[in-house]
Specification:
Strand content: under 5%
Order of helices and strands: HHHHHHHH
Oligomer: single chain
Shape: elongated
Number of helices: 8
Radius of gyration: 18 Å
């Protein structure tokens, strides 16, 4: 079986299992699981990619959550309009994300952006998620940082497992 066919089958089976599990575990986000999986392959699909994906995704979630807390906690939204204040806060966070790439541990900027963007996707699309109470609640279901980070990590690990199984069942390409 070709590498691509093996990858398609393994990713399809594991993606289906992940979907079924996430639909039964409140707080697991199938879309974030798939983002973590894609990030793993986008980052090279090897042991180093697993580490860099997890670190970058989680760092992005942390920066996104801190940014949301700042937006909600600092009363500049009363002076400026909320969209302007949120834009300033997010712009500053993006500067932090990019400059953090000077530290080798945080050098994979796309992985960090995936985590940051996924956190805000959860916050802006989930009713009541964008509140200090939920941002500080130790809950897989209600806390964006926990829910998104756990889902992204599961996705990265799922990508790693997909790659390993694919390598075991794929027939090497002729030389």
């Amino acid at each position: 079986m070709s590498q691509l066919t093996a990858l398609a089958l393994v990713a399809g089976v594991l993606g289906g299992i992940a979907t079924a599990v996430s639909l039964n575990v409140p707080g697991l986000l199938i879309w974030a699981i798939f983002i973590g999986m894609a990030c793993f392959f986008h980052s090279g699909g090897d042991n180093n990619a697993l580490k860099n994906t997890i670190v970058g995704n989680v760092f992005g979630c942390v920066v996104g959550t801190i940014t949301a807390v700042v937006i909600l906690s600092v009363p500049l939204a009363e002076t400026l309009t909320l969209p302007i204040w949120a834009g300033i806060a997010v712009g500053a966070a993006v500067v932090v994300v990019v400059l953090a790439a000077n530290v080798p541990t945080f050098a994979l900027i796309p992985a960090t952006v995936y985590g940051f963007a996924s956190t805000f996707a959860f916050l802006l699309q989930t009713p009541d998620a964008l509140s200090i109470a939920n941002l500080t609640l130790p809950s897989l279901r209600d806390n964006a940082l926990i829910s998104v980070a756990v889902s992204l990590v599961i996705g990265a690990v799922l990508g790693y497992v997909t790659g390993k199984i694919t390598a075991m069942i794929a027939k090497p390409a002729p030389a």
